[in-house]
Amino acid sequence: MTIALRTDRSSARLDYVLHIVFDIHLGLPYKVVQQWDETAGASLCINYGTTPDYRADINLFQSDLLYGQDIEDIKPTVSHDRDLPVFFTIPEGPFLSFSFSFDLFALIFFCLTRYEEYLDFVPDIFGRFPSHQSLAGLYGFLDIPLVDLWILELKKDIESASRHTLHLPRKYRNRPSVDIDIPYAFKGKGWKNAPGLLKDIIKGNRKRAAQRMAYFRSGNDPFDTYDFMTESFDSSGLKPTYYLLMNFQKPWDENHLINTAIFSSLVHRLKASGTIGLHPSIASGKIPDKLAEERIMLEKLTGEKINDSRQHFLLLSMPHTYRDLIGMGITHDASMVYADRIGFRASTAVPFPWYDVIEDKMTALIIHPPCIMDASMKWYMNITPEDALHIISWYQSTIEKVQGSFTWIWHNSSFSEGHGWHGWKEVFEALCKA
């Protein structure tokens, strides 16, 4: 089955969206034409224009977004069609002559490129784009993969018009990942545990003081949860990605020193269980050459090239962060999620290539968007472990419907009762089984 898409204008932005829709999501061969006689031989014709045409099987409305070269201060108005949020709606005219009441391709471009993050916003204390300033946060659709759902609606229209059943070129996947900010709570700190114990006692942190005393007696570190995690992953047939922080700089990048036998042993321990990725420090976004230095150090420890990355504290800045990663040869990133809110930051659960809006081009960097992070649920949203179990079930079923990737983030430290994580072990186990 071949799709002919007829349009009066072409652009790099349109080419990108068509690649997303037809290559990645639907797996359908297509060609873009400007003349109607060029549609001959196609199984189905889609007209993408400002006015509908009776010669097309499907008519899609065209706005101006995909034909601009600058970044405009756009504030879309959200309405609804087919019980789903929409924007870039048709200003006036024969709505019923178009399949949708809005520009589907513009909506996809706006969401995937994170267009709104190029505009002015009020950053949080780390300089991040907060979820509540996003269109999805303002209009309440952060919890749905809007892009994927609308492409499935287009799929239904194509099936109806062509009388063919389409099969998506992908399957649901559970994709776990672990951020290792602090490998061990006490192990390897030696004499520093003594003043730490005194500090716990002064602050009245009895649980943590008890854990530290228990470590003195048994050597069991509460952050050394790697055996439990790897056993859980193995029993569920999962291969996680472990993101390792390679910098020690207070107050935020507080990993152990990496030039120790303990850390080297941990890296090889994790390498046997899954993929190793880089967790670029906050400092790497401020100090020239720091990112390259951290990647080189991790590659020396692993003995292999590092292609995967996720920003520490999810410190993502458009377009600078992704340009830096591309410059270092990173090909996969999993930072596309808010720290303060779970949900679909780019309105998708399907990995996609990043588009640089300023350079106006698609890149080779593949974005793997997570939708759930342990710290977001507990510290930012005050979600209980019991409620988290229901949330996980809902997200799993939602992503399964679009046959996307359920990408989620955990930390090796998120089991420690002395650090407030009572009951979260069951949440981790539920995620592994999702």
Account of the 3D structure:
With 434 residues, the protein is an alpha/beta fold. Helices cover 33% and strands 16% of the residues. It has 13 helices and 17 strands. The protein is elongated, with a radius of gyration of 24 Å. It starts with a strand and ends with a helix. The model has no long low-confidence stretch (mean pLDDT 92).
Q: Quick one: overall form?
A: elongated
Helix content: 25-40%
Number of helices: 13
Adjacency order of strands in the biggest sheet: 11-8-7-17-16
User: Helix-strand pattern, N to C?
Assistant: EHEEEEEHHHEHHHEEEHEHEHEEEEHHEH
Structural class: alpha/beta
> Could you report the average pLDDT, rounded to the nearest whole number?
92
CA-atom Rg in angstroms? 24 Å
Distance between the termini: 34 Å
Unreliable runs:
none
The largest sheet is: 5 strands, parallel
Quote the beta fraction. Answer: 15-25%
Q: Could you give the count of β-strands?
A: 17
Summarize the structure.
This protein has helices at residues 12-26, 104-112, 135-139, 146-162, 193-203, 206-218, 226-235, 261-271, 290-302, 320-327, 374-380, 385-401, 425-433; strands spanning 3-7, 30-33, 44-49, 58-61, 79-81, 84-86, 173-180, 241-244, 248-249, 253-254, 275-278, 308-309, 332-333, 352-356, 361-367, 372-373, 405-411.
From the structure above, extract its key features.
434 residues, alpha/beta, 5-stranded parallel sheet, 4-stranded parallel sheet, 13 helices, 33% helix, elongated
Question: How is this fold's topology laid out?
Answer:
Elements: E1 3-7, H1 12-26, E2 30-33, E3 44-49, E4 58-61, E5 79-81, E6 84-86, H2 104-112, H3 135-139, H4 146-162, E7 173-180, H5 193-203, H6 206-218, H7 226-235, E8 241-244, E9 248-249, E10 253-254, H8 261-271, E11 275-278, H9 290-302, E12 308-309, H10 320-327, E13 332-333, E14 352-356, E15 361-367, E16 372-373, H11 374-380, H12 385-401, E17 405-411, H13 425-433
